[in-house]
Each structure stands twice: as C-alpha cells, then as structure tokens.
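Continuing the batch. This is chain 6 of the set; chains 1 through 5 are on the previous pages. Same settings as before, nothing changed between runs. Recording input and output for traceability.
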Amino acid sequence: MNETRAQRWAITGAAGTIGTALREHLADTSVELVSIDVAEITRVTPSERLLRCDVGDLAGLEAAFEGCVGVIHLAGIADEADFHDLAEINIVGTYHVLEAARRAEVGRVVYASSNRVTGFYDADTPVEEAMPPRPDGFYGVSKVAGEALCRLYSDKFDLRTIALRIGSYEPTPGSPREMHTWLSPRDALRAFDAAMTTDQRHAVFYAVSNNTERWWSLEAGRAAGFVPIDDAAELGSDQPPFPGGPQGGTYATAEYSVERMHTD
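Output for chain 6:
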C-alpha cells in the first residue's frame, strides 16, 4: 500500500463493518481519511476528518471530496428492500458519488458492488465478470445499475472506476452457501488495496476468497492485482453441501423480495 501513503481518500459508509475495518487498515499506512456516513462514526485516527453527509446530498459530497485522490463508495442499502428505496439510495446515490467525484476532480472511485448481481446463475455454472448480469433480486438490480454508472463515468468522463463484487464478508464461513462465497476480512483488505492501486482504467472483479468450492472466477481480480489467500474449506468443514439451484440461494426466492416490498 505504499502507493497510497499520505494520499487523501474519502470513504462513504465509513461507519459500517467493512468501512471501519478498511479505515483502520488505511490509517496504518498513513492515508489521510475523510470518513462519511449518516451514522455516528468512531474515529480511528486523530487526523481523520469525520463528516455527516447523505448520498442524496450532491453538493455536500462534492465539498467532502475536494482534494481527495480517490473515493471508496460503500454507502447504501446492503440487502433486499423496496425498489423505490433501493433506486433512491443505491442508484441515485451512486450517481451522486460519481458526479461529485467528477466535479471535485477526483481521480478514482472504488465501488462496492455485490455478488448478488449474478445470483440467478445456477450453482453448477462457473461465472466470469464478462457474463451478462442475472441479479437475484431488486438489490442486485441496483448494483447492476451502479456498475453501469461506473462504466459510463469511466468511458465518458475519464474517471478511473473499479467495481468490487463483494462476497460474503464474515469472520468465518457460516452456511453452505458461504463455502462458495466467503470473503475473509484479510482478503477483503487485499481486494480494496488492489482496487485503490491498479493501473486499469475500469475493472469489475469478484472480491471473494480463494475458496476450494468457489463459483466465481478470480482472473479479473488477479489482473487488477487481487490475490486472495484464505479458503473456506479450511474453516467450514462442518457445513453441509449447498442444495443446488440459484447461487443466490434464499436471496433468489420470490418470497425474499415480496416480504421486503412496501405495501402502501
């Protein structure tokens, strides 16, 4: 991470689990942090700048990004929800982050996408990033839209955009599905390190550990400098086999989406 030492980076969704771990990691490498969230943020370094700002506030984001080399966009609804909420926060909010970065002349945006953009591929189908999206719900749709916005801002406005399709971020794999999708905390940091430093103008790759039963290709990640080390098979041997069907598992069921829709 010497390439980012002493650089200024903004992180949206900084109070979350990944945001907190990433901030602690970056503070150890002397990155100057601008940490943004609507929730209370626990400071990880005395020099860290803490900001309360919503992704709906384009002007506030632009001001927050001034002087930043890059932005890591973690903020958003992180699971299935009513589509109207997902569209406003995950899609329009991501547009605001990218547009604010463009206006503030930020060089790079690292976007936290999700493995759920391909959750309707069958468990027997190995998936590569170049394959068409098959989201397992409206949350996945919102992340597909975010990836498309990243591609547009790279092509049209010459903004470097790197989208990470984040796997199941957990201390250890805790379900049959996570034997395939697990992303260890250590490998998550490796994925963000790669996204923050790769020379690629635009990239999309799966942030997933080197699991023996992995569904997703690691080739795009390796091309961007991401080399995961951990393996769910070393920690989750007590888990039964995945039952088959869509890789999204429960997330791909109709009930999972319908139960989270607004009814009024």
